[in-house]
Amino acid sequence: MDDRDSDAAVKAACDELRAVGIADGAGRVAVDLGSGPGTHAIALAEAGYAVTAIDTCAMLLEELRSRARDHTIRCVNDDVLHLRMHCDGLVDVVLCMGDTLTHLESLESVERLFEAIAGVMSPDGMFVTTFRDYATRALEGVDRFIPVRQDAGRILTCCLEYSESTVAVYDLLHERTDLGWTLRVSSYMKLRLDPEWACAALRRLGLTATLAAGARGMVRLVAIRQPGAARTN
Fold first, then answer.
1. Of the chain's two ends, which shows fewer C-beta atoms within 10 Å, N or C?
2. Taking the model in full, what pTM does it have?
3. CA 233 to chain CA mean position, Å
């Protein structure tokens, strides 16, 4: 990602945070789960938050470090389920953006993560997540083939294959070389995570939870810890 694309992505992330009421973070603490190259972590830092970014990919965290400029962002190479190990105290904002939740291996793992998040949230703390709704509607036929992006040298198409609780995602990457076009195929599994189920799971932990349309066709879920709500161990 070049500097112009990076700056545009951070601006979009700042707009996304403001849309849910995340603004001045001076003296406050935030965690970005599944931070990737840090678009939202940098947006939080620009708003004044002390940010911890957690991701399992060391290469993406290195990209975040190079993009952070003068922002102080603590980068942690670990599983997001180990959140509590990396929180010294209560956290004012927890983010889990860009479909990170659907990459967890099971609904039980999602529940464990929600319990960890609820356990570190400060009174009036906010949890914001976005993910794709693969649960309430399964694409069929040619609709399963989704153009992702293309330029003069690359064409990326995604194909979905549904099972009861998961969806297999196949990335088909065509690349132009001196010898012509080549094809590389990779695949991974995602959870079919029902947005209403996710809301109910957070409410059982004493949080308020609301759903709305998010950016890039995703669902956005916002949960808030009310003062005095019971805290998970």
1. C
2. 0.88
3. 24
